[in-house]
Structure formats: structure tokens, C-alpha cells
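re: ur question from yesterday

yeah so i grabbed the chain u mentioned. its 237 aa long if i counted rite. heres the sequnce exactly as i have it in my notes:
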Amino acid sequence: MRYKLLICDDANATVKAIKKGIPYQLGAVSCCKPDERYILPVVREGSFDAVLLFSNRRYDDFTRLIGQLRQEQPTLSIFVGMYSHSLGAAGDFFKAGAELCFELPTSAKRIGETIHCFMKVKELPEVPAYAACYLRAEGLSHRTDGFIYLSMAVDICLHDPTALESMYEMVYTVIAERLNVQVKSVERLLRNIADSASADGLVAKLTGGETDSANAHDLISALCDNYAHQHYYLFRQ
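ran it thru and got these C-alpha cells back, copy pasting raw so excuse formatting
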């Protein structure tokens, strides 16, 4: 299903760069002035599935705008670009109704890619959207075999770090049961994605160059460690 995204920014270069991260055949992108007087009427009249706001306005007014959009449009996905890197602000935006926040400056194309990933996985209730978006932001393609399994594995281990000590029982088996697949299939695809991440240089990036190869356990562990260090609290769990 093709979704409609409204970008509330009048900088053509930014809008164009974000659009590069969204396949044309899957997402239709429009833009409007970053002013509440324009945003609310456009959203009300445009039947949008998602909106991207930028927090370059008064904090209280911005939080209220998010809340009003959420109240009026319960199914609307709300994304926020944050110029102020604050855990407290992100928490307030999430409480008001935002679903993803991005620290700025961030690559505009990467923002588009992450939004596209979110819009694809939000229709899959068994997949934790925040974890999938985190993996996409780190450079993993959602089209990669095993991406859904890795998203679920990271989610499990972030919520219960002891799962890393018993991968077969607490990760592979749990994923297999949730998705009604064989455990060996989960294990194989996670092993394959770890090999791909090693070959693509992601493991070296995650570990600061300490190692350039990892098995599934080590990759999941590195992703969980990196989550906190890179301020991915901005992805609502």
C-alpha cells in the first residue's frame, strides 16, 4: 500500500533529500510551510498517513501541536526532527503522540529511509518498529533476509539483557514461536545476516574497529550496546 507523507519544511533541498530515501512507488511525499497555521489545515484535508515536523519552534507550542495532531488524527504517524538533543524533550514528544524522533543534524536521506522502514513494518504487529528503524538507521536494509528476525532479537535483548546468555532458548525459540517458523530457520538467517554485516563493515563500525567480524550473538550484543551510546532512546519502545 502506498502511503502519503507530509514534510513540514519549506527548504526544497531538505525535502528533496528526504524523498531520495523513499521509493516513489511506495511513498508519496508532499510539503508545507513549517507553521501551525498551515500544518493543521493541510493535515486535516490531505488524508496523510504520516507527518514529519521539525522542532524549530517554542517547546510548549510544539508539544501541543503534536498532541492536537494525535487527537485529531489517531492513525497518523508523527515523526519529529529535534534540533535540541534532550531525553526529556523526546519523552514529552512521545507522550504527546510522536512515534520517532531524529537528532539533527542527521542525513536527510537517512531520515527518509528510516521513515520508509517504519511505514513498512508498522503493519506487522509482531515486529518492533523502533528496533527495525534502529537497524535501518545503522545501515541494514529492511529487504535483507533475516531483518525481521534481527529486529525481534534486538528488542528481546534490549528488554532482557540476560537473553544474550541463552540465545537458543530465549531468542531463537521465542522468535520461532511468535512467527510460527522453525528454530533452525531463525538461527540460519541470523547467522547469515551476521556474516553480511561483517562483510559490509557494519561490525567494525559498531565495535569502533575492535573487530570486523561477528557471529549472530556478537552482532546482537554490539547492536544492543550501540543503541544506548548513540541516543536511540529517540526511537520510542
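noticed a couple things. Strands lie at 3-8, 27-32, 50-54, 77-82, 100-103. also The chain is about 55% helix and 10% strand.
anyway ttyl
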